[in-house]
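Q: Hi! First time asking for a complex rather than a single chain. Here are the components, and I think there are three in total. Is that enough to go on?
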Amino acid sequence: MLTLDFGFLTPAVVSSYVLKGFVFSLQLTLIAMLGGIALGTVLALMRLSSKSWLTLPAAAYVNTMRSIPLVMVILWFFLLIPLIIGRPLGAEMSAIITFTLFEAAYYSEIMRAGIQSIPRGQVAAGYALGMRYGQTMRLIVLPQAFRNMLPVLLTQTIILFQDTSLVYAIGAYDLLKGFEVAGKNFNRPVETYLVAAVLYFITSFSLSMLVRKLQQRIAIIR
Amino acid sequence: MPMIEMKNVSKWYGAFQVLTECSTQVEKGEVIVVCGPSGSGKSTLIKCVNGLEPFQQGEVRVNGISVGDPKTDLPKLRAHVGMVFQHFELFPHMSITENLAIAQVKVLGRGKDEARERGLKLLDRVGLRSQADKFPGQLSGGQQQRVAIARALSMDPICMLFDEPTSALDPEMINEVLDVMVELAQEGMTMMVVTHEMGFARKVAHRVVFMDQGRIVEDDKKEAFFGSPRSERAQQFLSKILHH
Amino acid sequence: MSTWDWQVFCKDTIDGEIVPRCFGGAGDITYLDWLLSAWGWTLSVSLLALLVALAFGSLMGILRTTPHRGLVLLGNAWTELFRNIPLLVQIFLWYHVVPALIPPLRGVPSFILVVLGLGLFTSARVSEQVKAGIQSLPRGQRMAGLALGFTLPQTYRHVILPMAFRIVIPPLTSEAMNIVKNSAVAFAVSISELTLFALQAQEETARGIEIYLAVTGLYFISAFAINRAFHFVEQRVRVPGMIGGGH
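A: Yes, that's all I need. Here is the structure of the assembled complex.
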């Protein structure tokens, strides 16, 4: 039986190996969330339009992204982006682009459900007041859809945070990688993986508790 | 020139015809009530007036502007045609004041303070000044509908459309809304009102339009309509409505 | 890069020679052989993990709906534990940590560890769906069962579960398709499945696009096949008169 020894994980070790990775994981989550929700909202509006030249490409994009394993999407973009822009791109930058475009597909499904949950009369009321399509969406429909879907959007973001660990496939330096490198250097892989798991758990679990609280509050307002 | 003019308007949902050759008009300052059994197409008809429902045949003109013409700037037209909905359709994520101001600011380009002032004045008028900072969900149905009327008025409409404004209300709240509408009518507002409230029609309507199965069956002066409706359907409808 | 080269799949994996008819003979393996064997690994991992996920997920989901606080707590703890740690980290835990802490597990092949890791990760999601399915049934059903003199387990067995499982088939279908997609993380512990094939073959042949397209296509086909299989089950167990039921 192996005895666990966490003594080597001094603040200095943590800050030199892990911190950088943790910051990147959070950065990746945040950028992909904001970009993904923005792009996802556009995709959702496209899919809900009455023009097939807008609905078809949006539907094809969303369905394709949703049916490929994320690891494969990460590999695809890592392969394709340099071919498109003509020069190599770092794993971290590639990950940011990949996750934004990938998550947009998932966020768009959430926003689509949110938009569809708004009664049609609200749109009619906006139009009846002389608002144009853009104003009706921006001022009336999207704020309500966004508010109704906030818990679901955040839950998806927790999944996104966990999924950022998959940048392992292209060697980007994230939280997991930080622990892995530390574990290799000190020959303590068991301890580092355990601590990594605990850290991911605490982050995800506390975020999901927060979402649950939010959900109850929204339920009361309705 | 009539304020609202409809000529032979027909509309289909796929193969199903909801409106057949509907023609009527509303003169400036006139109040007309549109009634008929449910499913008769009256709600669809009134939504054709401001182009919320597209129609395939015929012509609708509001203040001389053709609604069906693809070149017409519909949002610009709608900005001056007030509409009140069956389910109020206040914006639940905005306070009452914001509900009143948003379109004045974003559509008419009024300043925020001006829009707020005008909103408060109209709230006063419908007797709800004290509710200004509440949210729609905190108001009763009757109060919400009065706010909705104030919201439509805040745009300085040249005419008002009412789509069954009292049919989603509890009976004890119907009168507070009708009172506001009566007052509006007496001030000379041009109004087209889809409703079953025959008391309202008797009091302020100039003409009554009766619809059945997507057709305008009767279009009479109020006195003639209540005196002796010509069609059997209208007689049946009236006796049902008035005796319950 | 401008032209396709699908012949890459006919190449021998050792000397890079193109093998006629694309399949290698005795001792020789072409990329096509390797691709198909990798597909086999992906399917094996997915299907076995699915069984693990359905077994543990159903059990935990059921426990969470019982009136016993202890069982509810166990089900909740299980679900939160396996839901809040990234799949890849869980796979590493099974591969690096569990055998180190529990010596008898040292000889267990990594294939089994990955099946357990992927299966238990997914069991948390299955448990959520099963719980939601049971709770969506009218409460009167449970009471009717108990009122007939059934014990609680009998009520579950004969009254609640038969309906609950029909209700959760659609969400379980998408979880099953997710398992196929998630099995891709097995590459990280050197299971020779599709993603590992993609990574390695791409490096060896420099024909990344052809390799990735083939792999992506096989993932599509696998997920679609699972989708059809679940639909078939859904049709077979339909209850007449229920929403979406037959006549």
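A: Residues 11-221 of chain A form a domain with the MetI-like fold fold (CATH 1.10.3720.10). Let me know if you'd like any chain examined more closely.
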